[in-house]
## 1
Amino acid sequence: MDIERCIKLASEEHSCPYCQERLSCCEAPPFHIGDGLGWGSDILFICLNNNCSIFAKSWEQFEERYGHRASCRYMLLPGEDVGMTIMVGGADAFTGSIIDLAAISKQNERHHKETAYTEDLEGCVAKGNLTPALCLVLDNSADLATRKRACELLIDLNNLDCIDPIRNHRFIHGEIEMQANRAIKQLLQNNHRQECPYCMEIIKSQARMCKHCGKEL
C-alpha cells in the first residue's frame, strides 16, 4: 500500500447518504464476497455506524429473503461520487481494518527518517555525526543490513554518548542487540572506560571506587 496515497485518502471526508455519518477509511480485505472480481481498490470508505438505517433494517430483509443472517453497509470507492451497498455477516465486519491516520503518518515519518539517516550513514564518521548511526541502530523497523553497518560505525565514531540510549533500548532482533553490545564493549576498551556493575555509570577502567554511587569495585 502506498503510504502517501493512504494518508491522502484517510484525510478525505465522505458521508453516508443514509445516516450522514462520516465514512471510515478502511483497508480492503484480501478476499471478496461476490463475483470474485475484487474490490476495485485497496482502500474503501465504509459506513460503520450500527444505527445507520440500511444496516439496522437489512437484517430482517436478509432473513426473510435468503434465510440467513446478514445485513448491508454503504461503501464508496476512492474517486467515485456514488457508492453502493455491500453485504456483511456481522457488526464487526471491516472494524478491524480501519486505517489509523495517526499510525500511518508516524510510519511515514519513520520511513523518511530512515531514508535520510541511511543516506548520511557512510559519511557520518568523517563528519563526527553520531545521529545517523545511533538512530538506525535504535530503529527496530529499519533495514537489518543497514543497522548492522551502523553498529560497526559506532566504533569508528568513538562517541560514548551512544551507550545510554543503547542500554535503555528494547531490541527485537537479538543479532543487532549483540552487535550493539559488542560495539559498546569495544568503545569502552578503546577509551579506557568501564561500566559500574552497580549503577551502570561510565567510569575509568582502573577505578577502584565508583564516583557516582560510591561502591567499591
## 2
Amino acid sequence: MNLPNILTTIRLLLIPVFVLVFFSYGTQGLIYGAIIFLIAGFTDVLDGHIARKFNLVTKYGIVLDPLADKLMLLTVLFCLSVKEIIPFWVFIVIAVKDLSMIVSGVFLYKKDTVIPSNFFGKASTVLFYVAILAEALGFHIGSSLLYIAVLSAFVALTNYAIIFFKNKKQKQV
C-alpha cells in the first residue's frame, strides 16, 4: 500500500474517532471534533497531491478517497444534526446524494470503470469543510455557507451524472 492510500485509510479510521470525541467531551467535543475534521481534510489534500505528483494514483485510491470523503462528511453532518447545530434535512439531502454516488461508483467499479473526482466535487467538499468549521467555531456565516455547499453538491452530482451517462453510452455499461 502506498503513502496516499495509507493517508486515505487514516482518514477512514478518523471517522469513529471523530464520533467518540464529538459526543464524549461535552461542549469541547465540538472543538476537538473540528480539529479531527481539519486533520481529515488535510490528509485528503495531502494524499491527492502526493498521488498526482509522484504518479502514485491507484484504482484503490481513486475509489477509496472519495468514499472516505463522503463517509467522513456524512458522519460529521449526522453528528451536527443530532446536536441540532445544523438542520437534519441537510444530512438527509447529502446522505441521499452521496449514497446514490457510492452505489453507482460500486456498480461502475464492478464494470471496471472509475469516474475520478473533478473540480465540482472537490469544490463542494471544500465548501462543506469551510461551512462546517465556521459553524462549529460559532461564525454566523457558517449557515449561509452550508446552504451554498448543499447547492454545490447538487451541481457536482449533476456533473457526475452527465459523465456517468456519457460513459455508459460509450461503453454500454
